[in-house]
From TrEMBL:
Keywords: Oxidoreductase. Pfam families: Acyl-CoA_dh_2 (PF08028), Acyl-CoA_dh_N (PF02771). It comes from the Bacteria. Residues 243-379 form the Acyl-CoA dehydrogenase C-terminal domain. The keyword Electron transport does not apply. Residues 17-111 form the Acyl-CoA dehydrogenase/oxidase N-terminal domain. Gene3D superfamilies: Acyl-CoA dehydrogenase/oxidase, N-terminal domain (1.10.540.10), Butyryl-CoA Dehydrogenase, subunit A, domain 2 (2.40.110.10), Butyryl-CoA Dehydrogenase, subunit A, domain 3 (1.20.140.10). This is Alkylation response protein AidB-like acyl-CoA dehydrogenase. Signal peptide: none annotated.
């Protein structure tokens, strides 16, 4: 069975570990034809249906509305597992979780309850048009409604999303407004122009926002057209940076797993060595390389898990989180992200040293892992993450919240 074939589950998992196992099942289905789907570059409707049918899209949703009611620590592990099978779909799921959580980050309690009930019951899949490197969308106040207009060069989720998170600035002010709107409407035009080296199935092309109308009552966190800020509003960046970290790690594990299978089954020992071996898996340099890469990957995963624990501790008291707690979480996440990138790129490159020349064939598809990490790891310069950790280690400085920190 493949990702594009129908698949249903008769029962829902009941524990966090069982949900992680469900993610592994999904990853196994995705892995079967991941290379072919990457080469085809088709819109991943079937893959998103698989995420819905498996129940993974409602992992963070309230139990009373049919969700699993689980935490971010579990969500991060699920993202990592899905990315083992297909990095693009791991990214889509991770972004979905972040945008699902948007209401918790910025909305009023009443808005949170309403959004999470509908999103969970109807199994919404979330996309987002919130690329902060572009000019903000312009928002015009028209009485009972606000109107979003503008363009974003990246909008992950695109045509496979049921709803899209918009963010813009209210005209004549410095007030930012988030809103969740239906993706399928005439005022939203996805341009189908995502044609990049990797993460090819993330539907991350540009989008035109041509007068999307939103009732003021749906402006997240606003009451009587006024927003009441809190520190927790700024946790969106550490949350999504750790999403990145975990699908990088999943992709790296997928690379190591695929390469190991190839080495065991197809790599030939070098016939001109001083000490010729009967099989490639007996060769010292092969064992040394796999041992080195596995140790580095385990270390990077452990740091990511530590960062998830820090995030989880903050989520236990969102209304009282301090700037120091938020800043220290951002530092640990920055450290985890840089380790994941460095390790993932190394794994994606060095697996060819232990698989051999024939493993570069397009039919093998080992290139997909490096391409995926290389593409997305340029989202924001990793050097700035290292500098954030360096300023903390050297000067005790905490990073100030920005759209990338």
């Amino acid at each position: 069975m493949t990702a594009s074939a129908p698949h249903t589950w008769s029962t829902a998992p009941s524990t966090a570990e069982q949900w992680v196992d469900r993610a592994r099942e999904v990853a196994a289905l995705l892995a079967v034809d991941a290379v072919a789907r990457d080469r085809a570059g088709a819109t991943p409707h079937a893959e998103v249906s698989l995420l819905k049918d498996s129940g993974l899209v409602t992992l963070l949703g309230p139990v009373e509305h049919g969700g699993a009611g689980l935490d971010w620590s579990t969500a991060y592990r699920v993202i990592r597992e899905v990315a083992v099978g297909d990095g693009s779909i791991g990214q889509l799921l991770g972004y979905h979780y972040l945008w699902f959580w948007t209401a918790r980050l910025v909305a009023t309690p009443e808005q949170v309850a309403a959004v999470e009930e509908r999103a969970t019951r109807e199994r919404w899949f979330f996309g987002g048009a919130v690329n902060p490197r572009d000019s903000d969308l312009t928002i015009v106040d028209e009485g009972d409604e606000i109107v979003f207009t503008g363009r974003k060069s990246f909008s992950t989720g695109g045509k496979v999303s049921d709803v899209t998170v918009l963010e813009g600035v209210l005209e004549g002010t410095e007030e930012h407004v988030f809103a969740i709107v239906p993706s399928r409407q005439d005022a939203i035009v996805f341009n189908d122009d995502w044609d990049n080296l990797g993460q090819r199935l993330t539907e991350s092309g540009s989008v035109e926002i041509r007068g999307v109308r939103v009732p003021w009552s749906d402006a997240a966190g606003y009451v009587d057209k006024r927003f009441r800020p809190r520190v927790y509003n700024t946790l969106n960046v550490p949350l999504i940076q750790l999403v990145f970290t975990n699908f990088y790690l999943g992709i790296a594990r997928g690379a190591l797993t695929a390469a190991a299978a190839y080495t065991r089954d197809r790599t030939r020992p070098w016939p001109f060595a001083h000490d010729v071996k009967g099989t490639a898996v007996e060769e010292f340099h092969v064992l040394d390389t796999y041992g080195d890469l596995q140790a580095k990957l385990w270390a990077a995963e452990a740091l990511a898990d530590r960062a998830a624990g820090v995030i989880e501790a903050i989520n236990t008291h969102p209304d009282t989180v301090t700037e120091r707690e938020r800043g220290e979480a951002a530092v640990v996440v920055a450290a985890a992200k840089q380790r994941a990138i460095d390790t993932g790129l190394e794994v994606g490159t060095r697996v060819f040293d232990v698989t051999g020349a024939r493993a570069t064939a397009n039919t093998v598809g080992l290139d997909i892992f490096w391409r995926n990490i290389r593409t997305h790891s340029l989202h924001d310069p990793v050097a700035h993450k290292r500098a954030e950790v360096g300023r903390y280690a050297l000067l005790g400085e905490l990073p100030e919240p920005t759209w990338y920190t």
